Amino acid sequence: MKKWIIIGIIAMVVLLTGVSVYAYSTVRAPLTEGYEQARQTILDSGELQSVDDVSYFHGEDSFFVVMGLDTEGDQAIAWVPQDQEDSTTVLKESDGITPEEAQSITESAVNASKIQSVKLGKEGNTALYEVKYLTESNQQGYYYLTFQDGSFIKRYSLNND
Fold first, then answer.
1. DSSP E strands: which ranges in 43-151?
2. Which CATH class is domain 2-94?
3. pLDDT digits over 15-43, tens only?
4. Which of 11, 77, 111, 147 has its CA 20 to 30 A from that of 37?
5. Model pLDDT for residues 73-118, shown as the tens digit of each residue
6. Which CATH architecture has domain 99-159?
């Protein structure tokens, strides 16, 4: 009898794991397709000649941030709107601050105990960095600064309790 109970429990765990993996991949499929579509859109437009990385930013609007080489061979960043109805913005990487500079500016402006991530994004017509951090008092914080010169845009904090 014990043997059948153990077999039943193992079968349930395997079934639940399979269903979870299937559900996760189904939910992520449109985003995964979006990465490839953004990559192809920017290459087809000729604004970038090669793509090194594609990431996703969801703020007021959603963007795929595509990094690669422009037609002059310089590192460039393209913000491709997820809905693809708005125009794509392309800037040279050298036109803005680096992720390390964005992190440094944030660390000097807020009481961050740990920087969790630095992401490129865009709100309205402003290219920006979103710096996600954890404070000494265990609050999740977000600090937004412009890509061009690191000027403060906004920040907010959430309690992790």
1. 48-58, 62-70, 75-81, 89-92, 112-123, 126-135, 139-146
2. alpha beta
3. 888 777 777 666 655 566 778 888 898 99
4. 147
5. 999 999 999 876 778 889 999 999 999 999 999 999 998 889 999 9
6. Roll (3.10)
